[in-house]
Amino acid sequence: MEEVGECKCWKRLVDPSQFMLMSERALLPLSVTAVFLLTLGLYLAFQSPVDYRQGVTVKIMFVHAPLAWIAVHCYTVMTISAIRVLFWHRSFASIVLKTATPLGAIFTTLALITGSLWGRPVWGTWWEWDARLASMFILFLIYVGIFAFSRAFENAKISATRATAILTIFGFINIPIIKFSVQWWNSLHQPALILYKGGFSVDSAILMPLVLNAFAFALVFVIFYFIAIQNEVLRQRVIATQRLIAQKSLKADML
Amino acid sequence: MTHLQYVIMSYVTTFAGFGGMLIWLLVNKHRQRSALQQLRQNNKNVTETEDYDCNSFLDL
């Protein structure tokens, strides 16, 4: 019974009309929760102790790390959607795939900028072609490539969607490289923040605001994602209505 | 630049990015909604014109 219930709920979520209704209802409570969590997370971040070596610059971590995590997770969501598009031909999955791309690109850009602002006072350089930094930059290029590709063949809808899905799946190779780059190569970048060698690598005074900020940023991403999907559904409705009017006008002219 | 200035700049960049993204999404949503509304209105007009044409044809 539970499975049937879950299945129905999933079907509702992936139906564009139902999604528009559900997301419209969810946006306000999600936004209120996100603002509350962001305020609390930022307050706790500035209350947390400073690092004995990095000093106050360690506070950049509370925005940089969540941005980078979301940038990477966004790509994982895109890959799952790409698999659904490619093997199950789901039209809603193609919307999910297409709309995530610009958001992922912006989150990656913000992660790169904040990382650079952290690197300058700590490492003494804005940028270094180090494994983690280079792989994050490649992620940004992949996002830009997919964005351009998905919009380049707007008319050949099916083939463009499939090609975008294939490109996305290939690009996923970069995700484990980002994750393990700090272990596989000597890197300027610090190792994994939370779980490292079977334990927590940061103190709970820093861990708590970090996790809270990560959750708040994830909520912000979900809100943006919902609005982006709504926009794409609306855009497709606009195109469908334009076609309908054109067909009617053509029929009227023929009469 | 002092260390605190780097921290402030990173927070300002992040939230300016969020703000920009939100504005872009909301403007886009408004545009799509307005376009859809306008098209539906046009669609209604086309249907009415079509009905009128049919009637005039039948009258003949």
Largest sheet of chain A: 2 strands, antiparallel
Radius of gyration of chain B: 26 Å
N- to C-terminal distance of chain A: 55 Å
Biggest chain pair contact, residues each? A-B, 38 and 33 residues
**Unreliable runs of chain B:** 52-60
Tally of helical segments of chain A: 8
Describe the structure.
With 255 residues, chain A is mostly helical. Chain A has helices at 2-14, 16-47, 61-88, 91-123, 131-152, 157-171, 174-184, 204-254, and strands spanning 195-196, 199-200. With 60 residues, chain B is an all-alpha fold. Chain B has one helix at residues 3-59. The longest helix of chain B is centred in the middle third of the chain and has 57 residues, at 3-59.
Summary keywords:
heterodimer; A: 255 residues; mainly alpha; two-stranded antiparallel ribbon; B: 60 residues; 95% helix; disordered C terminus
Write a brief structural summary:
The complex is a heterodimer of chains A (255) and B (60). Chain A is mostly helical. Chain A is 80% helix and 2% strand.
What is the topological layout?
The complex is a heterodimer of chains A (255) and B (60).
Chain A: H1 2-14, H2 16-47, H3 61-88, H4 91-123, H5 131-152, H6 157-171, H7 174-184, E1 195-196, E2 199-200, H8 204-254
Antiparallel strand pairs in A: 1-2
Helix pairs in contact in A: 2-8, 3-4, 3-6, 3-8, 4-5, 4-8, 5-6, 5-7
Chain B: H1 3-59
